[in-house]
Amino acid sequence: MKIALSILIIFGVCFGGWKIWDYWAKVREQENVVQEEPAELNPTSIPGLPYALEQKLTEAKQRGAKTFKQFIDAWKNSPEVKDPRLAWIELDYVTMIASSDPIEAKRIYLEVKQRIPTNSVIYPRIRSLAKAYE
Known about the structure:
By secondary structure, this protein is an all-alpha fold. The chain has helices at residues 2-35, 51-63, 65-75, 85-97, 102-115, 123-133. The protein folds into two domains: 1-36; 43-133.
């Protein structure tokens, strides 16, 4: 009886050790995935904005928040301008007005977050802004 109990205890300890080792391997793998963030995304490479509007977008950003908002409002409903680039442009506007109009910035951020799927190329940026705007 002592031998059977000893074998059962040894088996239990080995099985428990194996499970802990397996769990630890999964945790290390998840840490590696989290650390391997994609390289910095170039906004001009994101689809959804015609090349002809790039210059107008740049000018609107340089002229300030009011002009930038006018650009967004003018082109937001156009079939030429679409997500994910539209969402990126709106997030640029959110960061531009964050200190002057935080309520509007939060509203726009939440609107963008609701319509962009988690597998989008810009979702890492949405996730990085979450602490500031949620």
